[in-house]
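Q: Sequence in, structure out?
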Amino acid sequence: MKIVVTGSVAYDYLMTFPGYFRDHILPERLESISLSFLVDSMVRQRGGTAPNIAYTLALLGEKPSVLATVGEDFGDYRVWLENHGVDTSLIKEIPGLYTASFFANTDQANNQIASFYPGAMAFASKLSLYDVNPKPDLVVISPNDPTAMDQYVRECKELGIPYVYDPSQQVVRVSGEELRRGVDGAHSLFVNEYEFGLLQKHTGFSAEEIVQRVGFVVVTLGANGADIYAEGIKYHVSSVPPREILDPTGVGDAFRGGFLRGYALGLDWEICGRMGAVAAAYCLEVKGPQEHFYTIEEFVSRYRQNFDDDGKLDILLSKVAKEIKN
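A: Exactly. Output:
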């Protein structure tokens, strides 16, 4: 399956606050607020929704392509992605600009205060799916410049390409009309529980109407796992207990990558969801959205420590064996 992932490409500046935000925020004073938090650590990591999703897909044996715009500082990042199995030939560098940047401050309860600088991402609408050859089997429309997201929805419909609609944090920036266009006729929809509520508010669609308009819907629930609405049935998958929790950044993207790899292999809904849960746990255990690593054998072993797959994940192992043989 040829999967093209669209969305932001960014550098993540991840900071750790040694206390709890709730101890320093006065709800009654939020209309006039000026806060500054002294952090005890900061790192710069490779991030952005598109390469985060693509990275997990590649770890699991898929060969995804990323369609995005980046700045002049992207050189080392491009080499990293290529070395880890992600095709970057559709990524365009915009002269004179920096790659988008995400700034996140995480407290001891894993709450985050974040901000985002779009940079070169603002030019994402200059890229078109009409220029992608051969035509993709599936396009992931993840958080990006709002104009580009709406454009890719339109182009997928015109070209007859199934698309995953993943508005995530852009639910608050994209208009209700654009969200309705994205939802209506989408191959699938991925949101977390809070975003699902916002999506209903901004589109005017009820939860039932959204499920009826989309091929299948995945609502992630954090530590409570995820709900999958498909073929008239609601499936629930539990989360995988992490060995430790170091950073929540990119966990949802890892879930999407794991789920979509299972989907590309034709596995059933529950196995797809559980693959997402395993991938998410790996991401949660490291600092940064692309710092986790595992072999497919390790991934399958961890899956089987938590879930029963009736041997269906042997398809992943067999693909590894074929690659080694060739």
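The longest helix spans residues 269-284.
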